[in-house]
Amino acid sequence: MTQQHPWGVMVEILGHEGISTPALRLRPWRTEDAVALVAAHRDPLLRRWLTTSLASGTEARRWIDDQSEGWATGVRFSFAILECRGKNGDAGRPVGHIAVTATDSSKTLATVGYWTSAEVRGRGIAGRALEVVSRWALGSQRIMPLTRLDLLHAVDNHASCRVAEKCRYALRSILPAQPPAFPRDGHLHVRINSDA
């Protein structure tokens, strides 16, 4: 069942199931997700690309609280990605994350970021979640009047580049490194509202 946010926005987005691909459920992070979040952050490859690494339950719960605050203030939509399995389509624990964050005061521009845990990497989950969230963010949600989504990743993160291109995010420019937060050059990909 789809839950409604106090503003009336859908906070649970279902990705469609394919012939051999489980459907995805995207919903806001919950406190009980802290264990799965810490487990995912133990992956060295994931930590290589993230600016924040969560090593304890306390850090994970604080991060989840920050995501809830983003929803409450209407400046960040942060979703846990779950796979639906079995005949009833029951969702297991989170296997990834995707978020849309406003970058200007008018909330017409936002960045989108995502990751998937090691055990599901390479199965197309990031691309499927990005496509669903992009269509939703640029289309049916009514909190941010978005006209453009920016997607940033390190130039040597080839997997993220493939996901961005697959989801029609055009490469706009190469951004210089800004250590210590961004130690590598980055790609800026863009998707505009007319693409939704």
Automatic annotation (TrEMBL):
GO molecular function: acyltransferase activity
Catalytic activity, EC: 2.3.-.-
Signal peptide: none
Enzyme category, top tier: transferase
Domain N-acetyltransferase positions: 24-185
Keyword Magnesium among UniProt keywords: no
Name of the protein in its database record: GNAT family N-acetyltransferase
Organism listed in the record: Microtetraspora malaysiensis
Source taxonomy: Bacteria, Bacillati, Actinomycetota, Actinomycetes, Streptosporangiales
